[in-house]
Structure formats: structure tokens, C-alpha cells
User: Which sequence fits this backbone?
């Protein structure tokens, strides 16, 4: 049980029971799961004394109290009187993945966010960022100076940090993390991350943390020396699967679930994004994801906060977000790649790799109306049937995007949408995402049309591993016909990926930022243009030949509205017969404020009768109308 405290924060019933825990002014309890060793001790690096032996307990755990030890002390575990290893549950790795662990006092930070209760999922407008390239400094603290910009000039309500668990070197996407409990040292470490979260809450911004439970990075991953954390029964694209359902798997499950609860308690994180859950294999009666979700939701309820869990899944399986009483895992939301692919292919006309199954206008309509495009149909890319029905799910349970780290960085050139389509098309993409009934996500720099690439970069120390990454990237691009020209290991690669906004002289940067700000303002101020509780509040009409999609949004508290999205490269004339009624223009993407030419503007009033209304539509138009009735 946790110690009593005088702060106004609620008393926690949960405390991390692994790793190094301060249990007195100068005493630390060390506890580690290591069923494969015959002896285990801890060596403190400040006095180079011999290892303090730990006592073996039930189920393969070793523990013991050591004095005198204080916060800041560095240590290693000694396995079988010979092998030195960092703590698998280290809170801080100041010298990297191969260095010693450091004792931390999780109660030392002075939080000021006691009134913050988090956001509900329908309030999330997410801004995904990579800590190392979002600013020139590449640190948690440096992000703080940009929070006012994100809140006021962009209008987002949450930032999503790509994984921050300690990875090798100083440059990495974060998916090679080897110490799940230790915030990356080169980003600033534990205290810096807490300062960022605290500052976000002061700005009214939630923090989503991307966490990885399907594998650990290959360098610095010493878990196998301690116990059977991994299994050869399952393999992933990144190596052996985690042992979540085999012999001795209870401790592995406890390790991962503790990590999830740890982030929301010790770091006040507001939501978790679970990376690639299709790489989590578990045939237990209760799936790890369900157990993890229940633990997080229980802890959040006790804290008086809201903590949604968002999954990334390649399965198109609605069970991920279905409640447990309907045989689901009970997670709150999941990324919807089908929406991205449908939107991307309409704009770019790409047809290779996994894009070969997309490009039809009605597919985007389906994604908006029901979620999955593939809900059991044959998928050419996969050469099999794919997915199940997502009807009946809430629209906000799908996170949608025109760009994210994967869909940019997993291209050979790391090219953003701003370098693939005309400028007006970027406004169509933004409107499709931000005026959807779903939970929208922007990738850093998207709001102003950043043209710097977002490339894949690593800083491994093993030459063989570096070469394996290079070759693996080449093989991955084969189905697209792409050739990578940047070296993931070259330091220049991360520098090329750093944001370079230019609002002073680049008029398009400012115009596109204004566009995103306006769309988000509409989403927040007009309920029918924001998140929807049911799919029944929306209708769509597709016009494939001119490539025009019309979306009608309805609600109880505001008049209906409709959105015209033009994917047409040339100006076109179209007669529309739905939606019926009298409509007043709210927004036109072709005005000067948003970098438009104003050569062909939307009619300020529109009356659509049974005989229809004839419209002259410029290329890549976005028109938003509200009902006058």
C-alpha cells in the first residue's frame, strides 16, 4: 500500500511493486522477476561494493531491502554471481540501454494539475508528434514552449507522443524501446516528461502516450536473461512474440499491465495508444488486452479521471472495441487505416502495395458511415477475406487521419502529403478528417503543410543490426516499387526529418494553418460537425465521375449541415438532388484567407429541390453549408 501524503491528490490504491522502490529515507526495496537464475543480487555503483544478495520468493521473484540508498543511486543486478544487467523495470537509464539503472523517487515531483480530470474521447482532437524532431532541441522540455501554439493557433486538444521508453542511442522512432518504464534519457528523462505532462494540463491539453507491448527492441533487451518473457510459439515482424499465454506467463502479463497503469498514475498520462496489437498473441481465456483495459479503467476510476485506451490494429476486428459483455476486449477506440487508405488513394491515385484495394469514392463514404471498408470482403493485397463488420460501433471509436508517422515514415522517401498532391487537395484532406464524426488525428507539421520528410532513423550500436534494418527496409518497399535513398543510421536522416515551419514568409503555411484552425473551430462550435455518438446521424452521396462526395450531418441540438468534398482535378459542373432544403454557406476553401484563388466561389445560398441544383465546382473544393430551416 502507498504511504500517506499531504497533497490534495486522491490516495492511490496502486503502487508499482517491481524494480527499485523507496521504502524509507535511505532504504530501497529491490524486486525483480527472475525464475531462471540461481542467485541474484544488486550492486550499487556509488561504492563498488560486492552485490547485496536478494531473497528468492514465490513464483520466481527476488527481493530485498538495501540501506543506505537514496534517489539518484545507480545500480545493476548481478545474475548467478557473474552477469551484470540493468533493472528490467528501471525508472531511468541515464547512460542508455546498456548502462546502469538509477533509483528514482516518484513522489518528488510537485504536480500542480490536481483539478485536471482528463478529457472524454469525444473531446479528443489529437496531434501526434515525435519528441526528437518536433523541435530543434528534441526534448520534452522544448515541447512546452509550443503548447500555446498547439492550443490557440491550431486548436487541438491532445498531443500524442510517439514511444518514449528508453531506446538505443539518441535517435529512434521509439518502437525499439528496451526499458518500458524509463523515459528516454536524451529526451530529458523522468522529471522532464513530468514537466511536459504538467504543462499540458495547465494548457488544457491531454497527453496520449504510445506504448509498445508486442515486442521489445533488439538492442539492450536483456529480459531473456531474467526469465521467459518471450516465446518461440509466436513470431512477429520484430522477433519472438511476448509470452502472454504460456508457462510462467502470469508474471509477463503483470509486467506489461503494471507498465500501463504506471504511466497513468506516476506520470498522469491521459490516454494510451497500444502499438500494433495484431502482434500481441494470446489464447488465454481472458485476453491480455481485456485484462489490461480493465486494470487501466479501474485505476482511472479510482483517480477520478478519464483514460481512454486506443489500439492500433491491422485486423479490422470490431471485437477490439466491443464491450466485454459482447465478447469484446473493451478498449475505447482504434486507429482506422481503411479511412486513411480510402482518402489517400482518392487524392494521390496510388495503386501499389496495400493501396491497390482502394481508390473508390464510395469507400471513403463507407469509412465515414460505418468504420471499416473491409468487413469480410476479399482483399487483393492480402489475398484473402479481411475484417468483420463494424456496424453498431460509435463513430468516435475510430481514430482517423490523412497522415501519421507510419503512413509517412514507412514510405521510402518519407514524403508527406504536401509533396504528393496540389495545395487545394490538402484542404480537402483536412476537412475529411476534422469534420468527420470520428476522433481526428493530425501528424506534426500537417497543419501548415510541412514539406520536410519524416524518415525512418536509428542509432544502434551493432553494425550487424544496422545492416539488417537497411535490408529489411528495402524488402518492405518491394511491393510498392519504391527505393530508399536515405540511410536510417546516418545522423543527417533525423535532421532532414525535423520540422521547419515558416509562417513569416511562406503564405501557404499561414493559409493552411488558418484552414485547420477554422475547421477545428467549426468542429468545436457546431455539434453537427463534430463527434457523433451514432452513425445514423450521417448520410453520404457519391458522384464518382466528377469525384464529388457530399456528407450530410445531423443532430438534435443544431440545424443539419452538409459538406461537399471535391476530389476533382479540374473544375466541374454537377447537379445535386440531395440533401433537400435551403442552405447557407458557412465555409469555402477557395477564399483568399485559406490560400484560394476566389475565381470560382461557392454560392452564399443554396436551394436544393427535387429537380436539383446545378453547381460549378472548382478543383478540390470544400464547401460547408448549414440549414436555414
Assistant:
Amino acid at each position: 500500500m502507498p504511504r500517506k501524503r499531504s497533497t490534495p491528490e486522491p490516495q492511490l490504491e496502486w503502487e508499482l511493486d517491481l524494480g527499485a522502490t523507496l521504502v524509507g529515507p535511505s532504504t530501497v526495496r529491490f524486486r525483480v522477476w527472475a525464475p531462471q537464475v540461481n542467485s541474484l543480487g544488486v550492486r550499487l555503483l556509488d561504492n563498488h561494493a560486492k552485490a547485496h544478495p536478494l531473497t528468492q520468493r514465490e513464483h520466481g521473484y527476488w527481493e530485498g531491502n538495501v540501506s543506505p540508498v537514496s534517489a539518484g543511486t545507480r545500480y545493476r543486478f548481478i545474475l548467478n554471481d557473474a552477469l551484470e544487467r540493468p533493472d528490467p523495470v528501471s525508472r531511468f537509464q541515464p547512460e542508455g540501454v546498456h548502462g546502469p539503472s538509477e533509483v528514482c523517487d516518484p513522489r518528488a515531483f510537485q504536480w500542480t494539475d490536481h483539478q485536471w480530470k482528463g478529457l472524454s474521447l469525444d473531446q479528443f482532437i489529437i496531434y501526434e508528434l515525435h519528441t526528437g524532431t518536433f523541435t530543434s532541441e528534441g526534448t520534452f522540455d522544448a515541447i512546452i514552449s509550443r503548447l500555446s501554439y498547439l492550443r490557440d493557433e491550431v486548436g487541438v486538444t491532445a498531443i500524442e507522443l510517439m514511444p518514449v521508453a528508453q531506446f538505443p542511442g539518441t535517435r529512434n522512432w521509439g518502437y525499439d524501446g528496451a526499458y518500458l518504464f524509463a523515459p528516454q534519457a536524451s529526451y530529458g528523462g523522468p522529471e522532464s516528461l513530468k514537466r511536459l505532462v504538467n504543462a499540458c494540463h495547465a494548457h488544457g491539453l491531454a497527453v496520449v502516450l504510445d506504448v509498445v507491448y508486442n515486442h521489445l527492441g533488439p538492442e539492450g533487451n536483456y529480459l531473456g536473461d531474467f526469465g521467459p518473457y518471450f516465446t518461440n510459439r509466436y513470431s512477429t515482424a520484430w522477433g519472438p512474440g511476448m509470452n502472454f499465454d504460456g508457462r510462467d506467463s502470469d508474471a509477463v502479463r503483470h509486467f506489461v499491465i503494471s507498465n500501463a497503469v504506471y504511466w497513468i498514475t506516476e506520470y498522469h498520462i491521459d490516454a494510451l495508444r497500444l502499438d500494433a496489437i495484431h502482434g500481441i498473441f494470446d489464447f488465454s481465456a481472458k485476453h491480455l488486452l481485456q485484462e489490461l483495459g480493465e486494470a487501466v479503467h479501474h485505476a482511472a476510476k479510482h483517480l477520478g479521471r478519464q483514460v481512454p485506451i486506443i489500439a492500433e490494429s491491422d485486423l479490422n476486428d470490431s471485437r477490439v472495441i466491443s464491450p466485454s459483455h459482447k465478447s469484446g476486449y473493451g478498449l475505447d477506440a482504434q486507429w482506422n487505416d481503411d479511412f486513411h487508405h480510402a482518402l489517400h488513394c482518392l487524392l494521390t491515385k496510388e495503386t501499389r502495395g496495400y493501396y491497390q484495394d482502394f481508390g473508390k469514392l464510395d469507400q471513403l463514404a463507407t469509412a465515414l458511415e460505418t468504420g471499416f471498408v473491409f468487413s469480410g470482403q476479399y482483399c487483393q493485397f492480402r489475398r484473402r477475406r479481411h475484417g468483420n463488420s463494424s456496424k453498431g460501433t460509435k463513430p468516435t471509436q475510430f481514430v482517423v487521419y490523412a497522415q501519421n508517422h507510419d503512413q509517412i515514415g514507412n514510405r521510402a522517401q518519407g514524403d508527406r502529403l504536401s509533396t504528393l498532391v496540389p495545395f487545394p487537395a490538402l484542404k480537402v484532406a483536412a476537412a475529411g478528417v476534422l469534420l468527420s464524426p470520428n476522433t481526428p488525428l493530425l501528424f506534426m507539421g500537417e497543419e501548415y503543410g510541412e514539406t520536410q520528410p519524416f524518415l525512418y532513423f536509428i542509432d544502434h550500436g551493432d553494425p550487424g543490426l544496422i545492416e539488417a534494418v537497411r535490408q529489411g527496409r528495402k524488402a518492405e518497399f518491394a511491393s510498392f516499387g519504391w527505393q530508399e535513398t536515405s540511410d536510417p543510421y546516418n545522423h543527417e536522416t533525423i535532421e532532414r526529418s525535423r520540422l521547419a515551419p515558416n509562417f513569416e514568409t511562406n503564405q501557404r503555411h499561414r493559409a493552411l494553418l488558418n484552414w485547420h484552425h477554422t475547421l477545428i473551430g467549426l468542429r468545436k462550435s457546431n455539434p453537427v460537425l463534430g463527434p457523433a455518438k451514432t452513425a445514423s446521424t450521417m448520410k453520404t452521396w457519391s458522384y464518382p465521375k466528377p469525384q464529388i462526395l457530399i456528407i450530410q450531418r445531423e443532430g438534435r441540438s443544431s440545424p443539419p449541415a452538409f459538406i461537399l468534398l471535391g476530389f476533382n482535378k479540374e473544375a466541374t459542373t454537377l447537379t445535386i438532388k440531395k440533401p433537400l432544403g435551403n442552405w447557407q454557406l458557412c465555409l469555402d476553401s477557395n477564399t483568399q484567407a485559406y490560400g484560394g484563388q476566389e475565381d470560382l466561389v461557392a454560392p452564399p445560398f443554396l436551394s436544393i429541390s427535387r429537380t436539383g441544383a446545378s453547381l460549378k465546382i472548382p478543383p478540390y473544393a470544400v464547401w460547408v453549408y448549414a440549414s436555414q430551416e
